[in-house]
Amino acid sequence: MQLxxxxxxxxxKKKLLGLQLKDGLLFKTLIYALLIGIGFVxxxxxxxxxxxxxxxxSDLLSPSVLYIPSKLYLENIWTSFQVLKYLETxxxxxxxxLIPALLQTMVASLIGYGFAKFEFPLKRVIFGIVIxxxxxxxxxxxxxxxxxxxxxxxxxxxxxxxxxASLGQGLxxxxxxxxxxxxxxxxxxxLEEAAQIDGASPLYIYFKIAIPLSIPSFxxxxxxSFVWYWNETYTSSLMLNNVVETLxxxxxxxxxxxxxxxxxxxxxxxxxxxMAATLLIILPMLIVYLFIxxxxxxxxxxxxxxxxxx
Amino acid sequence: xxxxxxxxxxxxxxxxxxxxxFILLTLIPLIRSITFSLSDVSITGNExxxxxxVGFDNFINILTTDVTFIDNILMFLSExxxxxxxxxxxxxxxxxxxxxxxxxxALFRGxxxxxxxxxxxxxxxxxxxxxxGSVPLIEQYGMLETIGEILPSFxxxxxxxxxxxxxxxxxxxxxxxxxxxxxLQKxxxxVYEAAQIDGASPWETFWKxxxxxxxxxxxxxxxxxxVMLSTFSNNTVLGLIRQxxxxxxxxxxxxxxxxxxxxxxxxxxxxxxxxxxxxKENVKRIKGGKKHATQHSKNKKLL
Lengths: 310, 303
Hints:
The complex is a heterodimer. By secondary structure, chain A is mainly α. Chain A has helices at about 1-15, 25-55, 55-60, 75-85, 85-115, 125-130, 140-150, 160-165, 175-185, 190-195, 200-215, 215-230, 235-240, 245-250, 255-260, 270-305.
């Protein structure tokens, strides 16, 4: 009898603490609790945004309503939809992000392939410079570029963004060149040699063999280019100079646009409207992420940036 | 010879577009930026941009008289000293937790990566303005005030800003978490088994195996963190540079000089970070560890 109790006690202890601490119930609970806690803090701002943007003025002021609105109130969203000129701005946002992202990806693939597959003088030095461009901060070359583009009459047009992107000098281009370089390095030489013996030119090999193989790198680079261009405002606000407006830039000037649209109503701009506007800005990305979340994370895994060997 | 020539031709053919872009849009602007920083730049209607060399006057002026810039730089520095280690440690801890045998790993990972997709200057701005950038509990229990009372101000101030802008730390760790997690998952289970057999505690395993083999990734993550924080659109120093470009008491020359000072500072910061984290002799150690591990598994088979 006593032996039995001892036994259950032991097995209970084993379950709770585990053999190696790491497989015990206590440890697991702690891990889950921490992960859920941290996860909550991560999504809290988004939940807050949703909750506040659905509250009307009386809910916002009422101390009894903290997070859950008393009724479904969509007026804030509609107001900020109008102030942001949402559909129109969304369209121009997409143009100034999708086109540079696509061009940047294609060019990075070309450049990465060049570094990965050919031997030429100064290759290592040039590749080193490519990597170094990652840490050259944008504000350093922003002023001379602004002057240059101003001379070329490109300020305020999408070309001020497209041109750097299509010459491999876009937003974090170095990262994408590196991603493609790492990938093309991994393609076995035998594959190309076989094609070469069949009389294929390097261009043919690049287009017909390398590109189809590197579709995952294309997806990763395109997605991250897209996201980074979408969220970048420092350089783009200078280059686009309020002529081409993106959603992010309109959020920066939201208060004054609101006052333009609803003159005299200025006092009425409340956190509900502002949070609704912020929500509308991140909404397209949230939707994209919801559907292809895995692609983003796989992208980093496969990019080789976290390569174990090195 | 023919083959070699072809290699050179095609090599430069493929990277040519980068070379052209680099020279036109990065190298020449960099050189021009140096000239600007050493000049008084004025914009005239008919002649365009006129530069008048003034030597190091811009730099001297900034360093001796520009209180706002110095203040902002110091703020930025103290934030970096606090943020970079916190981001690195936090993202490594989260990655280690995610690497345990848990359910819903993909879901958690998805949540922690989410901010990377939506974080932008204006969005963060709005969130901080509305006070949604902090952890609710911290605000409710008046932790910020308590910290201000207990600690001396040079410690309390950055810590307070850290806590009230917790979102800046968490939302900027997404990429690092995924990097660390990828690194952890690439590590062989053998090494851990061997350590376990040798009677190493999880604590020891972490310090002796996990941490040393994550060093390379930590360097990548640290560089990423510094570059990202220093170029984020909300950065006050960046804002100041931008403002000075068109200010009457500034101009392109003055703003360029500011950019260079800022860049030099970030360069030094990056060097320090890499020097602290970069592996020194751990390559040997890992190799030794692997041998050790294979020996152990052999022994296991023999037994």
